[in-house]
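A.,

Following up on our hallway conversation. Structure tokens first:
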């Protein structure tokens, strides 16, 4: 089994290395990741400039490829033939912060898994719910172990077409994690605010700032599971059609 391990925090992020080291126990690992941080870059296909790839050396003797493309570009590049050997599985992470609810549309971690799914390759995204103002190095060992357990389940049971798994892990030692919950996407509460300032030449510029997002810890959701100390596993369909509302829009008689 040949795994592509990627992320959105960049090739030198510790979460990527922790993930690669754990997934290596299941087969061959190739790392292709962005050369810079692409967090919250969404699903990207770079079409108006060439993509460069260079080989880099990570800690622990890992060879990796760093690309100047987005996470989803890294996945596309690899699947389309950067390497001769075909990819059987895409594992994206470990992101240091949770990707819950609407986050999945912003997340480079998640959209890298989407890119694998589009090519019908089983894919998972894995994120750690580390405290926002954590000082010092994060412990990725529990999340890496969770990633391996989930990957093993996917291999044993097969991933349906057009679906991937979005996995979020509470920031706890593995032994303190309460268990695994299959969840639906919950409600994120964004606290974004627009900060307007002036540059030294008097021209305005804008930052989208504000506090880290919160969430509604409703039972059955990803936010709820994480907040009660469980690993959240949300199956995500690439079909975003609002099936519940097809009848509603039918009644509009659009065009009549
Ligand atoms: Mn990130």
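Then the amino acids I'd put at each of the 256 positions:
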């Amino acid at each position: 089994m040949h795994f592509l391990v990627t992320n959105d925090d960049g090739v030198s992020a510790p979460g990527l290395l922790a993930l690669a080291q754990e997934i290596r126990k299941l087969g061959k690992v190739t790392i292709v990741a962005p050369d810079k941080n692409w967090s919250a870059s969404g699903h990207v296909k770079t079409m108006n400039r060439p993509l460069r790839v260079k080989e880099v050396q990570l800690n622990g003797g890992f060879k990796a490829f760093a690309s100047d493309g987005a996470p989803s570009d890294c996945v596309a590049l690899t699947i389309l033939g950067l390497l001769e050997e075909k990819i059987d599985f895409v594992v994206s992470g470990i992101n240091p912060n949770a990707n819950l609810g609407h986050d999945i549309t912003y997340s480079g971690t998640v959209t890298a898994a989407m890119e694998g799914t589009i090519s019908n390759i089983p894919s998972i995204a894995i994120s750690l719910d580390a405290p926002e103002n954590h000082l010092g190095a994060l412990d990725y060992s529990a999340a890496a172990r969770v990633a391996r357990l989930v990957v093993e389940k996917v291999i044993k049971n097969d991933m349906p077409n057009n679906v991937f798994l979005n996995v979020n892990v509470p920031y706890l030692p593995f032994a303190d994690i309460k268990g695994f919950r299959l969840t639906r996407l919950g409600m994120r509460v964004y606290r974004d605010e627009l900060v307007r300032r002036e540059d030294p030449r008097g021209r305005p510029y804008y930052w989208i700032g504000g506090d880290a997002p919160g969430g509604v810890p409703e039972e059955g959701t990803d936010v709820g599971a994480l907040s009660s100390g469980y690993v959240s596993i949300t199956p995500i369909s690439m079909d975003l059609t609002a099936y519940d509302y097809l009848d509603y829009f039918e009644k509009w008689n659009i065009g009549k």
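The chain has a mean pLDDT of 96. Curious whether your intuition agrees with the design.

B.
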